[in-house]
Design goal:
Blueprint: H1 2-19, H2 27-36, H3 48-75, H4 80-95, H5 101-117, H6 122-160
Length: 167
Amino acid sequence: MEYIVLILGICLLIGGIIGSILPALPGLPLSWLGLLCLFFIPGIETNYWLLGITLVITIILSILDYIIPAKGTKMFGGTSYGIWGTNIGLVVGIFLPIPFAFLICPFLGAFIGELIYNSQDKKRALKAAFGSFLGFLAGTFMKVFYALVLFGIFIWLVVKNYEIWVK
């Protein structure tokens, strides 16, 4: 049973890392649930402080994930059309076989979204698309970094308690 919970935890953590890039998946909560799986494995010492602190950080970063791209877009004069364009461009970019499409398409999506909002001012649309893209990159970097930290904590706790696996 321990192995099933361990494999489930690893799958949740990997899903959390992927979800930190994809806008449709809740990456950080998935990663935290993967870490929580260790709590249910007898012999692995996970304390309440570790789980509590990582939960609070997960909640804060999940909230910031919505605030950072919006602030980046607003700072550069963008609208919600640019934010939606960024997210749609990201989803499209993941499925395109072009190298680095997952980086190019969010920018193009934000630009197209801003042009839909106001097709007359291309300079403003380009500036707003850049702001939306910067906000997206900052939020994605933050989420991926923290998801990798949670994965590292998971591995550290498993390796630290390695003797329970070698029976």
